[in-house]
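Consider the tokenized backbone below.
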């Protein structure tokens, strides 16, 4: 174990200097700096914290500041007051990613700000394309890694393309930094409702006792986006929707839904349980996958995937995928976990739908199955679909719900951005919501064989129109794995953003988009 790693055990709350590598890029501008600002204005960031941006692009201070503020939303007077103070903490340094002398200049800058702030830890945020991860990590190790200073490295996905490349990345990174120093970010682990999963499951007897194959018939985890690849076609085409969303975000949700109770909330206890679940899942079978690719919208206004000039002609990269995973352990054998994700669909939402088995006996007719729906975004909510007596003189059953919609239940709550939550965790040295190397390995084992089949062009993606519900066959795919759609009419009252807005001005919860 390195000198630096040894000290981290006891020094979680060190004052950090934050170094954002790739500071000129999309992620840094859209997510990293707005999240750092969010932490600052809510007093989670020590006001002495210094933030240094680093990238190849030459920028003076004013240009850099213009860049940082582009996606920072200023909603209140306090926000407007906080911004100039936040900008004072930020500076920018240009340099190449593989030149020691440039990282030496960066080192001088870090030492200068450390002297002023008294910081004893460094958080390097790699907001960079994976092609430069290792050369940047090497440059940091050679030039900016100091004995006695805590070093933390946030690495963005994708963590490889398949099992082999992921192992290589892990090996190369592992030769430079300890596992304790590495924070592999999956921003879904920072989402409020994803963080709520352990509490829902393990702090409620009524849920805990039915959370198994004896009561649950099937589980669906769905991610839908209205946008297409939106200028990221070059990146996307290499990866496809399974690597972009399913193998990481949806699988992380699955592990939290399916794992056994951890011994504690400690990072290693939680991650041990997550790995165990993944190891019980066999690789996805070819018959358990359906893929699609979006075409022009029906009105011709939105372009098809292949119309993106950065996408190679005739590409078969899927922009939609549905797969079914099975966890072969005592709790879950026989329960299909159906993961669905797609771009350019009819709506934006991420939700977990747990459908229970049928009620036995024949006392009632026309019953719908119970469902617990955990709405990750938008309109965070947990609602339970139950059968109820239709009010009146008869004994007719009707679907109703027990609805915990955050917008109506919690007053004046600000739901933090996922990146705010995760950056705060890394500043505090907390790994619980980051991906461990063996977790990654187990995840790639599940997906690599089917990805190879898809990459070989063996599975033809089914075309679907931009803005539609997805490719034909998804309903049948889901039904094949046991999901039963009720023939009783039911619409969750808070299903759309419009419905939340329509609830009127007394809406108290501030939900950030
Ligand atoms: N953008 C997003 O919404 C998300 C991104 N990610 C991940 O975050 C990381 C960064 O993504 P993103 O910000 O979109 O990436 P960008 O393409 O915007 O790259 C970030 C910066 O890296 C430098 N760069 C770009 N291409 C190269 C290259 N070929 N060689 C060397 N340097 C290069 C550029 O800075 P300069 O030229 O100034 O050095 C650029 O500003 C990636 O790993 C991505 O997968 C994860 C989730 C969401
Ligand atoms: O990681 C990614 O996630 C986004 C979706 O994130 P969300 O927080 O807006 O749900 C997705 O658009 C992108 O393709 C993917 O790389």
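A designed sequence for it:
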């Amino acid at each position: 174990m390195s000198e630096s790693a040894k000290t981290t055990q006891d020094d979680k709350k060190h004052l950090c200097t934050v170094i954002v590598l790739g500071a000129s890029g999309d992620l840094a501008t859209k997510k990293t700096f707005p999240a750092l600002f969010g932490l600052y204005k809510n007093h989670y960031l020590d006001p002495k914290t210094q933030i240094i941006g680093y990238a190849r692009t030459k920028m003076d201070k004013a240009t850099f500041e213009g860049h940082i503020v582009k996606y920072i939303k200023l909603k209140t007077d306090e926000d407007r007051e906080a911004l100039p103070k936040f900008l004072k903490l930020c500076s920018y340094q240009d340099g190449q990613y593989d030149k020691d002398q440039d990282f030496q200049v960066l080192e001088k800058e870090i030492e200068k700000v450390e002297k002023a702030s008294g910081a004893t830890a460094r958080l390097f945020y790699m907001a960079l394309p994976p092609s430069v991860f290792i050369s940047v990590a090497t440059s940091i190790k050679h030039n900016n890694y100091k004995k006695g200073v805590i070093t933390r490295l946030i690495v963005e996905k994708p963590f490889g393309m398949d099992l082999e490349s992921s192992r290589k990345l892990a090996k190369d990174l592992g030769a430079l930094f300890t596992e304790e120093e590495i924070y592999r970010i999956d921003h879904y682990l920072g989402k409020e409702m994803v963080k709520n999963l352990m509490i829902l499951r393990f702090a409620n007897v009524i849920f805990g006792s039915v959370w198994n194959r004896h009561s649950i018939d099937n589980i669906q985890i769905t991610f839908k986006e209205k946008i297409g690849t939106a200028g990221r076609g070059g990146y996307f085409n290499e990866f496809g929707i399974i690597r972009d969303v399913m193998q990481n975000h949806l699988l992380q949700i699955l592990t939290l839904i399916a794992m056994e109770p951890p011994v504690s909330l400690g990072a290693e206890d939680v991650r041990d349980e997550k790995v165990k679940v993944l190891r019980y899942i066999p690789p996805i079978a070819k018959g358990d996958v359906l893929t699609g690719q979006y075409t022009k919208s029906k009105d011709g206004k939105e372009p098809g995937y292949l119309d993106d000039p950065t996408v190679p002609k005739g590409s078969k990269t899927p922009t939609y995928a549905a797969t079914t995973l099975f966890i072969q352990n005592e709790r879950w054998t026989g329960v299909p976990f159906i993961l669905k994700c797609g771009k350019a669909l009819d709506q934006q939402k991420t939700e977990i739908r747990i459908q229970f088995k049928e009620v036995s006996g024949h006392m009632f007719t026309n019953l719908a199955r119970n469902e617990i729906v955990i709405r990750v975004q938008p309109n965070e909510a947990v609602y339970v679909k139950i059968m109820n007596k239709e009010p009146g003189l008869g004994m007719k059953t009707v679907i109703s719900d027990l609805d915990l919609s955050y917008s109506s239940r919690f007053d004046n709550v600000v739901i933090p951005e996922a990146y705010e939550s995760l950056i705060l965790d890394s500043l505090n040295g907390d790994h619980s919501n980051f991906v461990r190397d063996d977790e990654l390995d187990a995840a790639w084992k599940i997906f690599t064989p089917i990805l190879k089949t898809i990459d070989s062009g063996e599975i033809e993606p089914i075309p679907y129109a931009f803005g539609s519900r997805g490719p034909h066959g998804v309903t049948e795919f889901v039904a094949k794995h046991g999901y039963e759609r009720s023939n009783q009419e039911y619409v969750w009252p808070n299903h759309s953003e419009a419905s939340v807005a329509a609830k009127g001005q007394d809406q108290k919860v501030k939900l950030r988009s």
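DSSP finds 16 helices and 15 strands in the chain.
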